[in-house]
Design a protein that fits this description.
Layout: E1 4-8, H1 18-35, E2 39-42, H2 56-65, E3 71-78, H3 84-97, E4 102-107, H4 114-119, H5 130-141, E5 162-166, H6 169-178, E6 182-184, H7 193-203, E7 215-223, H8 227-233, H9 235-246, H10 265-274, E8 279-281, H11 283-297, E9 301-305, H12 311-328
Parallel strand pairs: 1-2, 1-9, 2-3, 3-4, 4-5, 5-6, 6-7, 7-8, 7-9
Helix pairs in contact: 1-2, 1-12, 3-5, 6-7, 9-10, 11-12
Length: about 325
């Protein structure tokens, strides 16, 4: 069985404020390392009421401080929003505080709307500099060269592992060119998954960080004791995606009995296209879905979103998924 990791959305809900969401992320990491998950990532989003991870490096510190061994990182930092020097300093500091446990995934999208992008004091054109920004960041995290005028302190020599995130061909080609691991966002943009993986693997050039391609695939998985309960829990995420199309993003809402009464047929078609790679159901259903996804993609690692409203039931979902994975590896489930 390939390694499993977690992408935590740090969800603010009708019953959980931002502080509660941050503490839930920390609690999830503590459990996840006991269940065998390799890493937990949080992502940079701005001006979205239901996501509390805008100050991503601070959230990473909070989560890492509450856990012992699981890798914690950004999935990702939206690099066009920042100077590479500032990110090198932030993640160099994190690496000093939590040595050997920090990952830095990098995205090209703004992680917000255009109005908020202007409030961040960047323009859409900043994304055009993304490849050079990644190279500059690599240099700032490398050991300083003699006579180097600008040095990230902390940061220089930290060599925090970099990842390229993507949902299209662009990220795949950049990751391949730079010899970096690649994470594809098929948990919300699955359309180009197979083409992007093929591009990445065929064009990959070995680097100091990585000698062969390493692809991580994002997937929504919601597990419950039976399929019916899992499908009901999944309505929270389905409503959230519907609201994206309506332009009415809000906090997470509890699951409902009849999702068909919530969305229109057109909205349903759009949402189900975005969630086409989701695996929702009982442990047997999850096992079948994981086997099919791994066989199809050849993924080196899966990073899982389990967007369940109730924190206790979300923990249960991740524990059930881990139990299924242990069974696929021939390791007895935890008791």
């Amino acid at each position: 069985m390939v390694p499993l990791s977690i992408l935590d959305l740090v969800r603010v809900t009708e019953e959980t404020d931002a502080r509660g969401a941050l503490d839930n992320a920390r609690d999830l990491a503590r459990h996840a390392e006991d269940w065998g998950y390799r890493r937990l990532w949080v992502a940079e989003h701005h001006n979205i009421p239901g996501i509390a991870s805008a100050a991503t490096s601070i959230v990473i510190a909070h989560v890492a401080a509450g856990s012992r061994s699981i890798r914690v990182g950004a999935g990702g930092i939206m690099l066009p929003n920042h100077s590479p020097l500032v990110i090198a300093e932030q993640f160099g500091t994190l690496e000093l505080l939590f040595p050997g446990r920090i990952d830095l995934g990098l995205g090209r999208a703004p992680g917000t709307d255009q109005l908020t992008l202007r409030a961040l004091r960047h323009t859409p054109a900043a994304a055009d500099n993304f490849p050079q920004d990644v190279v500059d960041l690599q240099a700032l995290l490398a050991p300083p060269r003699p006579g180097q005028a600008i040095v990230a302190i902390p940061g220089a020599g930290a060599e925090v592992p970099l990842w390229i995130l993507g949902s299209s061909h662009f990220g795949a080609m950049l990751a391949a060119e730079l010899g970096l691991p690649y994470a594809f966002a098929s948990h919300f943009a699955p359309a180009m998954l197979m083409q992007a993986l093929e591009l990445y693997r065929t064009r990959f050039k070995p680097s100091k960080q990585l000698d062969r391609p390493y692809a991580m695939v994002g997937v929504n998985i919601i597990a419950a004791p039976d399929d019916d309960e899992a499908r009901r829990l999944a309505t929270t995420q389905q409503m959230s995606f519907t609201d994206i199309f309506r332009g009415t993003r809000g906090v997470g809402r509890p699951p409902i009995d009849d999702i068909e009464a919530y969305w229109t047929p057109a909205e349903k078609a759009k949402v189900m296209q975005m969630l086409a790679r989701s695996i929702v159901g009982s442990p047997d259903t999850i096992r079948a879905g994981l086997e099919a996804l791994i066989a199809e993609t050849g993924a080196d690692e899966l990073i899982i979103v389990s967007d369940v409203y109730d924190h206790r039931l979300r923990l249960r979902s991740f524990e059930l998924i881990a139990d299924v994975a242990r069974g696929m590896s021939g390791i007895p489930a935890a008791t």
